[in-house]
């Protein structure tokens, strides 16, 4: 079954025109070694059992599928269900992938893990995995992101990881990936690069998708138990693409299920300040960071600056698998602006008592825009990839909350004194 | 004349050849030109000019920042190609273009090779174009008589080493250690053995780059490598000692060929 999924996705690391492994020659043995180990675990039922048991014991799986009664009643249209990846240990879906890669590291005999992180969720998840499994961890994070998401930096450090702010390039996620690749090129003997999303050189897109497929495996079972059918639509946010692939993969061969990915529309299409590769049709096929996909780039092929209120979606490329699925029209891609996301956030928190991450709120914003077109008998699932505690600074600022501002100012003053 | 013939002729005169590197536009074109003049005056044998890229994953911190600095000034690929054209017509030295695959990909791989040929470039070096992903690039370059330099490392197994030798042309760029450009390489026996093995197994000209710091390293490579490549160290010498410091640095390296 698992093999069938991978075969459907791609051949030899390619998904249509996208994918590959465009890495410096020094990294070829490292990606080969990893690919070989990944191909082995794909055929190893025991490995999968061990992996899923770890997710149950340590991360809290299966995560619930919550009926969004308040939102469903508010719109009076389709029934909305929420896949609660926010209830994973560490507060996001990132832990699914990282625990899988941790077990793979043990198999490979590696003792040090490196990772890149945007919003910090993958960094925290990696630091947790390293602490639990006894690995040394180094996390690369764009200096700008480290500033925006210091709470996560704090936790990574407490967990014993070394956090390296990256000041090169645009000082965001793509630059953190570059630094991690450079580190890996120098240390692959004992070091594994736990890439956090379904991007990068082969086998990362497939491997991350494989480890995140637990989301849609559970989702399929749960929704069929509750509603007696597959969902009519699934919404997931789309940065690199790991939670979207996780939510979609088990339904790829179910033509009745519409799959919708929502990118970061930032300040809007015309502003040029966004991270929408597909929905705004601004990206071109290119080769960077070890793989071929749709990148936001200029005519020369230089990668462009991206923008989103959400650090986790602020990425210049996109999973080659999703680039292919969008091209073949299996996945429909929208973009939600920062302003739409803030409005959606206010609605979710007030109607459901849930605090979604700004990343996940993009998926809700996409749904809210389209919900008028649905019927009451329709069933929709939104993948809530993470919880919003980490975003308190951005949300407090976006909502212009005076009490929060006063608190931050007073705290700042207290430290300055 | 194809670069292989030029190298063969130059090798008859010297124990080891020297290839130097510049990032085009860093710190500016005028400075690049003075440095290239200094290369020429000191008998440098081949010159590698790097077209900056926003995400240079094979480069260390020194070059990464320089790439970025050039792009922040708004310098375009066309500006770099014009500069290379001018240099190639001014100095009778083989020039090679080093850049990342996306620069070729956006330009059009074949169009880029054609343009390089037109402006007098002898070859290209593209570190993120592994042989199994960028066949068109290697094949078309070969067809056009332009060197597409392939890269080998001590971790390339014999089968892959042979494939690297077969697909590339001009010479093999041998990266003697793990990591990226910039930090020092210690040229111990193990590394020298690896170079020798690569030379013997492929029968090709071997250029060694990454981490060469000065005359002593170049001297160590005599008898094993055909070409020594110096990149980051040159930028460092320029930044700390200026053009006169570079002149002296290259003069010291040139003497390596004269020593008994």
TrEMBL record, chain A:
It comes from the Bacteria. It catalyses: (1S,2R)-1-C-(indol-3-yl)glycerol 3-phosphate + L-serine = D-glyceraldehyde 3-phosphate + L-tryptophan + H2O. Its cofactor is pyridoxal 5'-phosphate. Keywords: Amino-acid biosynthesis, Aromatic amino acid biosynthesis, Lyase, Pyridoxal phosphate, Tryptophan biosynthesis. One of its GO terms (molecular function) is tryptophan synthase activity. Residues 60-386 form the Tryptophan synthase beta chain-like PALP domain. InterPro entries: Trp_synth_b_CS (IPR006653), Trp_synth_beta (IPR006654), Trp_synth_beta/beta-like (IPR023026), TrpB-like_PALP (IPR001926), TrpB-like_PALP_sf (IPR036052). The modification N6-(pyridoxal phosphate)lysine is found at residue 94. Pathway: Amino-acid biosynthesis; L-tryptophan biosynthesis; L-tryptophan from chorismate: step 5/5. Tetramer of two alpha and two beta chains. Belongs to the TrpB family. This is Tryptophan synthase beta chain.
From TrEMBL, chain B:
Keywords: Amino-acid biosynthesis, Aromatic amino acid biosynthesis, Lyase, Tryptophan biosynthesis. It holds the Pfam family Trp_syntA. It catalyses: (1S,2R)-1-C-(indol-3-yl)glycerol 3-phosphate + L-serine = D-glyceraldehyde 3-phosphate + L-tryptophan + H2O. Pathway: Amino-acid biosynthesis; L-tryptophan biosynthesis; L-tryptophan from chorismate: step 5/5. The active site is at residues 48, 59. Gene3D superfamilies: Aldolase class I (3.20.20.70). InterPro entries: Aldolase_TIM, RibuloseP-bd_barrel, Trp_synthase_alpha_AS, Trp_synthase_suA. Its EC number is 4.2.1.20. The alpha subunit is responsible for the aldol cleavage of indoleglycerol phosphate to indole and glyceraldehyde 3-phosphate. HAMAP family: Trp_synth_alpha. Belongs to the TrpA family. Tetramer of two alpha and two beta chains. This is Tryptophan synthase alpha chain.
